[in-house]
Backbone:
């Protein structure tokens, strides 16, 4: 696994989020100062915003990803920069 995949998998485990929520996460959904990940209504099956408290380790990982910002996705696809990671890649 590459570095992006390892970080995505780590956050997936730490936050107990769905795979699709994790790989489609965007930087604007994450409030690192408040430690909250707010998944928009449009991305949620139930049609309501979903807020997930971020662990300290997740915040550190996301900060590292944000420093290397390639696009709006936290975990960009390394081959198609403007796209999120896909399962198994």
Residues:
């Amino acid at each position: 696994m590459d570095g992006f995949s390892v970080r995505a998998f780590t956050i997936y485990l730490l936050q107990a989020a769905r795979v699709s929520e994790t790989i489609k996460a965007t930087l604007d959904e994450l409030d690192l100062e408040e430690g909250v990940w707010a998944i928009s209504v449009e991305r949620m099956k139930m049609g309501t915003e979903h807020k997930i408290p971020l662990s300290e380790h997740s915040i550190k990982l996301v900060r590292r990803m944000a420093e290397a910002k390639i696009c709006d996705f936290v975990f960009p696809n390394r081959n198609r920069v403007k796209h999120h990671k896909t399962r198994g890649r």
Remarks:
- Residues 79 and 86 are 11 Å apart (CA to CA).
